[in-house]
Automatic annotation (TrEMBL):
Organism: Paraburkholderia kururiensis
Descriptive protein name: DUF1007 family protein
Signal peptide boundaries: 1-28
Top-level lineage group: Bacteria
Keywords associated with the record: Signal
InterPro entries with a match to the protein in the record: DUF1007
Length: 201
């Protein structure tokens, strides 16, 4: 009987593990792609809400809300907007609308979104809404991180531009924001590192 070295067995096991991981990644790749922007609304050095905009670049099924025909461009009417809200948006409440705000490492709680709008821009579905915090949080001198991601990686959220997250008009001049790759909150079992923004005041 041929001898199989311990090194060979280890190599085979490592190879099989890589194959399994690759298969899992292939099966769970994103099915929906969203390019987002967010404007941080502040009162002094307290964050009070986020104005978010999601542009579905690929994979958003209009059939999800049973809409047979969409306008070519512009805002949807009230009836269509309500259908999107009730059938394809409000269910995201359990996931905090995939929005993550950490202050000194503590996840912040959001209230119900307001001002929900749906439009068609260059053939792409776009959501716009305001996401208020359950209570304003003073971020002066604290470590603050903001990001939008789906932990399951079913939806791939990417910043719509290099500095897609910005400070609103009410933010003090001393506050600043920068984007970074978040190594502290890996998603999809650690295979993907989301992009996030650090806010300093």
């Amino acid at each position: 009987m041929p001898h199989v070295s311990r090194f060979s067995v280890s190599s085979i096991r490592a190879f099989l593990a890589c194959l399994l991981a690759s298969a899992s990644l292939a099966q769970a790749h994103p099915h929906v792609w969203v390019a987002y922007t967010a404007s941080v609304r502040m009162s002094g050095t307290s964050i009070v809400a986020l104005d978010e905009r999601w542009r579905f670049t690929e994979g958003f099924p209009v059939q999800l809300v049973g809409v047979g025909q969409m306008p070519a461009q512009g805002l949807l009417d009230a009836a269509l907007t309500k259908r999107f809200h009730d059938e394809a948006f409000v269910s995201l409440a359990h996931a905090s609308y995939f929005t993550h705000l950490f202050v000194d490492g503590r996840a912040q709680v959001f209230g119900a979104p307001t001002g929900f709008q749906v439009s068609v821009e260059d053939g792409k579905i776009t959501y716009a809404f305001r996401l208020p915090l359950a209570a304003p949080v003073d971020v002066r001198g604290k470590s603050v991180e903001l990001g939008v991601w789906d932990p399951s990686y079913y939806v791939d959220y990417e910043m719509d531009s290099g500095e897609a997250v910005s400070l609103g008009a009410g933010a003090p001049g001393a506050c600043s924001i920068r984007s970074f790759v978040d190594k502290a909150h890996p998603i999809f079992n650690g295979f993907v590192l989301p992009h996030a923004s650090a806010i300093a005041c």
